[in-house]
Design a protein that fits this description.
9-stranded antiparallel sheet, 372 residues, 45% strand, single chain, 6 helices, alpha+beta
Length: 372
Amino acid sequence: MKFSIERGTLLKAVSQAQSVVERRNTIPILANVLIEAEGDSVYFRATDLDIEVVDKAVAQVERAGATTVAATTLHEIVRKLPDGALVSLNADTAAGRLTVEAGRSNFSLATLPKEDFPVMATSEYDSNFSAKAEVLRRLFDKSKFAISTEETRYYLNGVYMHVADSEDGKALRCVATDGHRLARIDAPLPAGAEQMPGVIVPRKTVGELRKLLDEDDMEIAVSVSETKVRFATPDITLTSKVIDGTFPDYTRVIPQGNTRRLEVDAADFAKAVDRVATVSSERSRAVKLQLEEDRLVLSVNAPDSGAAEEELAVAYSDERLEIGFNAKYLLEIASQVDRENAVFMFNSAGDPTLMREGTDQSAVYVVMPMRV
């Protein structure tokens, strides 16, 4: 195998591949990226047995072939090469080496045979549809902060993507929760997605998928089965196993009867929470909200480190309320708001609080209060 490729193109392909590779694995081949050259294209394939990414790049292929090489080492080499350099890769399978040349730089890397590389079995997908990158980015970006990190509740370690009934008809919905907060985001249902089975997309897959979704107008081909999900652009295909578990009935957690309405400038609110939380003890990070007519007082009282208070002008006309929240959770929820105002709906100091982005019904957040 021998080919030449522009350094920037190679870096983009190798960085996507090496991010999938698990740093701590006991199977040497899983630390490698499979490089396959044919025609005028080179394919870079990496896997951790749960996720597989294949990146296609244009190159001048002199000799077709395939080999595998350490993903992180190749990535570091390419990253340190000068911009615009033409990189030549030449594999000698008999010697088990891959030569990487650019200008006066020359590297010789150990390789492992391509036959040892595990390729994820192809499966039949129940549902195939396409969606704009910006739609998928919004669905996953706004929900991923609420993914649980508790390994015991493994079925919460991802984003639940499914078809649901919304106020505007059928929707493609993403939900994540860790028991303390919940995010539920809707988008219009793409054609062809009607029969899609509900799947839990793992946290790592959500992180890798984010790298495919930077160009707003790009169409992403989505394929879903009971066990796998695949996202593909013309150049990159990301295939992942889904979490084998049942996502809980999240609709029971979303409060319906909260009537006390607070409207506040989302950016001002987030900054004020951040400021008063500076003095809170790391363990609890509790912030107290005192609500009176058109007035909100945020306060923190940490006996070991100090106290802080800040007042905000808000739209609130219900009876007085004092309620406490984890500052980190409030900040994460407030940072999701794209519109100017955040609308909080309260019931009592002990009940879950609902938040929406202005008049937008397609994004709903729930946060549990804490005692202060």
